[in-house]
Amino acid sequence: MNSNSFYDAKWRDGEFRPKIMAYYYKQWEDFHMGFHQHDWTEFMYVISGNCTVETNKDVIAMRKGDLIMLDAGVPHRLIVESGSPCRMLNVEFGFQPCDGIYPSMNQMANHNPMFAKLLEQRLDTIVLRDYEDIQVNLRNLVFELDLGGEGKEQGRELMTNLLMSQLLVRVGRLVAVEAKNSTERQIHQYVRQATEYIHQYYDTAIQAKDIAAAVNLHPVYLQRIFKSNMNKTINEYLVDLRMDKAKMLLARTDVPIIEVADHIGLNSRQYFSMLFKKMTGISPAEYRKSKNTISSWTDYEVEIVDNI
User: Fold this and answer.
1) Bridging pattern class, strands 16-28 and 86-97
2) 37, 73, 282, 301: which could join 2 in a potential S-S bond, CB 3.0 to 4.6 Å?
3) Same domain, yes or no, for 149 and 111?
4) 20 shares its domain with 137
5) What residues contact 68, with CB distance under 8 A and at least 6 apart?
6) In the Cβ-directed half-sphere of 14, how many Cα atoms lie within 13 Å?
7) Are residues 260 and 222 in the same domain?
8) Selection from 135, 128, 214 nearest residue 175 by Cα
9) Mean pLDDT taken over the chain
10) What is the mean pLDDT of residues 282-287?
């Protein structure tokens, strides 16, 4: 890790605050920068246009409103294609002793759990997509810097530090929010895959462990996220689906009742009749009759058996 890294613990062991090392606006076009790295952490904000930022690990497409934060020492390069100019704001920052101007990195970490979490994650590269408040924060920061430079007046230096601290805390919050959203999207994806599998194989003797294996999750974890998202267990969902299919077969087809159980993945006709009556309050034969479907003699025989 670079000695000037944003994540270096020394910035929190003492009382240090952010310090702007350099900032500039520039419009790029038909530009392919070579790989390089900075001694300090860098913000790159796209004011207009499109570009690509390539690091030693990722290739990141950037558009208007996007912000990327690169830790000190991260190799990267900027690529802007011909005919598509990109205007950017770059800010490099490090740290300096507080000298009576606060908050410090230590205070921000102690009083903001999301910022503390960001420091623990040690993300070499952070990308935030089109957050208007980030743009406002950066604009206000640069406005203060343009008024005369950091350090010439203590009031302006205090304001600059407050805006920079606000920006860093906001980045920590947004990273936490995006991580949560990403996790939720992944969970929804697992649940969607599980329901698709159930709909595809409901007519076979599937169990929760088979569904979990199909989506590459531990059965206990899948059961938990499935119940949380669907408000019913996997087995309850499977039973409901099978009963819906059974109702369709009874109401719309002439499939004999004794065969319906096989069509919905149940290997016991008696269990099917018992489960159907439990779920609907009536027997399969009574349900078929209620739908004005002509019952066969076989259906009548099953009805007699079911009522024994």
Assistant:
1) antiparallel
2) 73
3) yes
4) yes
5) 43, 44, 53, 60, 62, 125, 126, 127, 128
6) 12
7) no
8) 128
9) 90
10) 95
Residue 252 buriedness (CB in 10 A; 0-12 / 13-18 / 19+): exposed
In our burial notation (b when 16+ CB lie closer than 10 A, e otherwise), range 5-25 reads bbbbeebbeebbbbbbbebee
Shared domain for 151 and 292, answered yes or no, is no
**Tokens coding 91:** 């800010």
**Full DSSP string of 184-221:** HHHHHHHHHHHHHHHHHHTTS---HHHHHHHTT--HHH
Look at the chain and report how many structural domains it folds into.
3
Confidence at residue 304, expressed as pLDDT on a 0 to 100 scale: 35
Residue 266 has a CB neighbour count (10 Å cut-off) of: 20
| Alpha carbon distance 250, 40 (integer Å) | 71
**Cβ proximity of 125 and 58 under 8 Å:** yes
pLDDT in tens, 217-259: 999 999 999 999 999 999 999 999 999 999 999 999 999 999 9
Answer yes or no: do 16 and 154 share one domain: yes
**Helices in the chain by DSSP H: which ranges?**
10-13, 105-111, 113-121, 132-146, 154-201, 208-214, 219-230, 234-252, 257-263, 269-280, 284-290, 297-306
pTM for the full predicted model: 0.70
**Residue 136, both tokens:** 């406002």
Q: HEC string of 256-308? A: CHHHHHHHCCCCCHHHHHHHHHHHHCCCHHHHHHHCCCCCCHHHHHHHHHHCC
Per the structure, the complete domain to which residue 102 belongs is given by 10-174
Residues 224, 214: Cα–Cα separation, whole Å: 16
Check residue 14 and report its DSSP letter: T
Q: How crowded is residue 53: how many other Cβ atoms within 10 Å of its Cβ?
A: 22
Which two three-digit tokens encode residue 276?
């159907």
pLDDT digits (tens, 9 = 90+) for 99-152: 999 999 999 999 999 999 999 999 999 999 878 888 889 889 988 888 864 445
